[in-house]
Amino acid sequence: MTADSLLPLAGITVVALEQAVAAPLATRHLADMGARVIKVERVGEGDFARNYDDAVHGLASHFVWLNRGKESLALDLKTDGGRDALTRLIGRADVFLQNLAPGAAERLGFGAQELRADHPELIVVDMSGYGDAGPYRERKAYDMLIQAETGLISVTGTPDEASKTGIPTADIAAGMYALTSVLGALVRRGVTGVGASVSVSMFDATVEWMGHPMYMRLYGNRQIARSGVGHAAIVPYDRYPTRDGEILIGVQNDRGWRVLTAEVLSRPDLAEDSRYATNIDRVNRRAEVDALVAVETKRFSTDELDERLAAAGVPAAEIRDLAGVVAHPQLSERDRWREVDTEAGPIRAVLPPMTFDDVELRMGPVPALGQHTDAILAELED
Predict the structure, then answer these.
(1) pTM here?
(2) pLDDT value at position 231?
(3) Hey, which of 100, 114, 214, 273 has its CA 20 to 30 A from 74?
(4) 3-class secondary structure, 25
């Protein structure tokens, strides 16, 4: 038995008419797990994420992150030949996933209803910004816009200024729900033999992630406050100064408060003070509690306090920049880095988060635009 045959999606073929972030993230994970992913791109232009930047040896950082392990097929879908090739390719596939503009796939003849009528076993995943109905259906749906419409920006940032997240959270949310929908549909098809038509929108995915702030609004009748790296419902949970820097401490419960104050900070009087006994008490006295903790944390160096917190089991972390993440001992000591080929030469990439005990997931090359067109078209002639 070969290593590739142990990959969980070995033998599954995915055709992706995709661009940008959300859909490519879903299909890259499918490729990592062993699926054959054929990425259909525009002739001459390709996925526009190829041109977001040139940070990776002249290639775009988004593209190399999201598209390893795929085959690139360049087609002109405005031509009969291009549409015919895609039709035949979908007829051989297990999954067809697309995130074109609303209605574009249907106008090209690749709507879910039409495809499933010809191939009832096919799994079709349509990804969109706002869903397939409703007053916002036709709107542009970039990550920043979805973060705004779903309230994510309203709870992100500091008390003085709202902010979007530093990564494309709405895209990632939609991509992960698309991924899980494919896996679920494949499991169901294995039992029933029937495919599926699935819709995933960035809006719905991000609203789902707004869980606790939304429930606080629904039932607590309040908008949670922006709190920087702090937490609207937990105290102490923030960045605190040390003698030579700062550290993040996140106390999740009342026992943790007592351990922090009595054992780590050597302030048993705070642990016993009834004014701070419960998290609700501490939230109501947020500024007072944070100030008390800050006075004590400044007595220690960052390394010393980090060691004391870890020994006591109090959640804490260094606030690392990206250079610190790249050099993180948790990655290097667990051998999480691998080399991935690209047209510009090999690059480093981190192993997928899903770790199987009997096989390492596949991290294939990042394709050049149209690299596999001739070979795939030749297959269709067989």
Answers:
(1) 0.91
(2) 84
(3) 114
(4) helix
- Give 205-263 pLDDT, tens digit per residue: 999 999 989 998 999 998 988 888 888 789 999 999 999 999 999 998 999 999 999 99
330 has pLDDT over 80: yes
For residue 162, what are the β-bridge partners?
157
Q: Which residue has the tokens 């031509």?
A: 79
Q: Cα(28)–Cα(179) distance, rounded to whole angstroms?
A: 9
How far is 228 from 156, CA to CA, in rounded Å? 7
Joined tokens for residue 349: 């990439």
Closest CA to 11 of 95, 77, 86, 82: 95
Domains and CATH numbers, the chain: 3-210+332-380 (3.40.50.10540), 237-318 (3.30.1540.10)
Burial of 250 (0-12, 13-18, 19+ CB in 10 A): middle
How many alpha carbons lie under 13 Å from residue 46 in its C-beta half-sphere? Answer: 18
Give residue for tokens 């030579």. 244
Q: What is the pLDDT of residue 1?
A: 62
For residues 196 and 115, what is the distance between their CA atoms, to the nearest angstrom? 11
List 250's β-bridge partners, or say none.
237
Rounded CA gap, 101 and 297, in Å?
Answer: 52
- The 10 Å Cβ neighbour count of residue 207 is 18
Q: Give the C-alpha separation, 219 to 170, whole Å.
A: 25
pLDDT in tens, 101-129: 999 999 999 999 999 999 999 999 999 99
How far apart are the C-alpha atoms of 115 and 105, rounded to whole Å? 11
CA 32 to chain centre: 15
Sign of CA dihedral 130, 135, 136, 139: positive
Closest by CA position to 345, among listed 35, 66, 42, 59 = 59
Residue 178 pLDDT: 98
pLDDT of 349 strictly over 80: yes
- What is the rounded CA–CA span in Å between residue 243 and residue 232? 26
